[in-house]
Each structure stands twice: as structure tokens, then as C-alpha cells.
Write a structure and sequence with these properties.
Blueprint (H helix, E strand, L loop, with lengths): L7 H16 L4 H11 L8 H19 L4 H28 L22 H6 L12 H22 L3 H16 L3 H10 L7 H20 L4 H26 L3 H4 L7
Length: 262
């Protein structure tokens, strides 16, 4: 590559692409460090990880039907790995923090040592849905994500020539990602507190979502991307509004733990 032919535009584009690839996972570093330091993950909703895992698997699937920029594809692959790491930490912390060991809940509804002779499909059918995404072993999360990836991959292989299917996959990927903050928003609302949630993480969500929405518009990404990016910004602002409100109006249950990790 002839560096002498590089223009300012090329440099800015390269920096923006790098920010898109790695910027998505950066907001979760403060929350990850907080959970690991305090050995408490009660303030973080694990369904945030669920939303991002499903959204990014859908986005990778969408890429095979309608190619978009490689930085967005790389971001999705990196995010899947990051969210699995977050899930693993939350499971490990929850298991260690229990003084009295509670009943084990796995994807197949029973301890892993008892499921060797049962098929994975039967395990899905017999699953105790009241404990969905609340399993006590990390393997259950990995199995479920692999199941979703295989089903979506096979259906995309069958219907890749149908534009309606491909566009639907693309819309679902960005719409579900736009709902990223809603599990956290709902958990804060039900607890009447934002204690235990990293405010730094949410601020970085907002900055990242504003950046990537502008990136989508500037790079002429499919319309689904920037429309849902705008929705994400709205959810981020709503969560930050909760931080302000519950700090100014602490409830009895949240007053004792009103400090926020940064």
C-alpha cells in the first residue's frame, strides 16, 4: 500500500471503522470490572446480554443475504464474544455469592450430569421457561445461542433468495439491538433504583449510539440501521433520566445502596 496516496478522508474513515469495530464493547468494560470487583451483579440486567446476542447473530445472518460494510460485521462478531464473557462472569458471580446453594437450573431443566441421554431438542421442549436466561450453568447459555445460530443459519440458507425474508432479518437485527437498554430500563423501574448499574456504561452507550447513528447516515447504511440507532439514543436518555430521578427521589429499598459504580 502506497502511504503517500493516503488522504485525510482515508485516515478519518479508517479511524471511524476502527471505532465501530471496538467501540461497541467498550461501554461494558466498566460494568464488567464493577461486577468482578464487587462480586455483585444484581444491578446489571443479564437480559441486556440476551438482547445483544440475538441482535448480533441476526446481523451476521443478514450479512449473507445483503452485504454491508465489514466493520459492522466485525463489530457483531466481537460483540457476541464480549456478551458471552459478560454472561460467564454473571453466572460465576451469582453461584459464588450464594451462601446456601440453591437448586440448579439448566437449559434442559436438570443438572448437566443427568442429561447425557437426552437430546438437545427434547431439552428445549421440556425447558422450565420460568428460568429462561436465569440458568445456573454457563454451558446452558452457550447451547441456547448455538441453537439459535443454527436455526437462523439454516433458515437463511433456505430463504436467502427471498428479499422479504432478508429485509425482515435485517430489520429485526437492528430493532432488537435498539431495544438493548429496555431490560435495564425495566429493571431500574421495578427496583425503583439504579444502584449497582454502571452510569459510565450508559453514558458510553449514549455516546456510542450517537456516533454509530451518524456513521450509518454518513456511510449510507441500510435505513434500518440509522432509524433504530435513533431509537437507541432515546432509550439511553430515558435510563439516564432514571439515574437523575431515583437519585433525587430515593426509595426506602434503594436508599441504602444509592451509590453508583463508575
Amino acid at each position: 500500500m502506497d502511504l503517500s496516496k493516503l488522504t485525510l478522508s482515508d485516515i478519518v474513515t479508517a479511524i471511524a471503522s476502527g471505532a465501530m469495530i471496538f467501540g461497541g464493547v467498550v461501554p461494558y468494560i466498566p460494568q464488567y470490572r464493577t461486577i468482578r470487583r464487587t462480586l455483585n451483579c444484581e444491578g446489571f440486567s443479564p437480559f441486556v446480554c440476551f438482547v445483544l446476542l440475538i441482535a448480533n447473530i441476526l446481523r451476521v445472518t443478514f450479512w449473507f443475504g445483503k452485504r454491508f460494510e465489514y466493520p459492522l460485521l466485525a463489530q457483531s462478531i466481537l460483540m457476541i464474544g464480549a456478551m458471552l464473557a459478560m454472561v460467564e462472569l454473571c453466572v460465576r458471580v451469582r453461584n459464588k455469592s450464594e451462601i446456601v446453594q440453591s437448586k440448579q437450573h439448566s437449559l434442559r431443566g436438570m443438572p448437566n450430569s443427568m442429561v447425557n441421554n437426552r437430546t438437545f431438542y427434547k431439552g428445549i421442549v421440556d425447558m422450565d421457561w420460568s428460568y429462561f436466561w436465569k440458568w445456573t450453568d454457563f454451558l446452558s447459555y452457550v447451547e441456547f445461542i448455538l441453537f439459535v445460530a443454527v436455526v437462523l443459519g439454516f433458515s437463511t440458507y433456505l430463504f436467502i433468495d427471498f428479499s422479504a425474508y432478508v429485509e425482515t432479518i435485517g430489520f429485526l437485527s437492528v430493532f432488537i439491538e435498539a431495544m438493548l437498554g429496555t431490560p435495564q430500563l425495566y429493571q431500574n423501574y421495578t427496583k425503583r433504583s439504579t444502584a449497582g448499574m454502571s452510569v459510565t456504561m450508559v453514558v458510553m452507550w449514549l455516546c456510542g449510539d450517537a456516533f454509530k447513528t451518524g456513521y450509518f447516515i454518513m456511510r449510507s447504511a441500510p435505513m434500518q440501521f440509522w432509524l433504530c440507532g435513533t431509537l437507541q439514543i432515546g432509550v439511553d436518555i430515558a435510563i439516564l433520566s432514571q439515574v437523575f430521578y431515583y437519585t433525587m427521589h430515593p426509595t426506602r429499598s434503594g436508599a441504602a445502596t444509592s451509590r453508583h459504580p463508575h
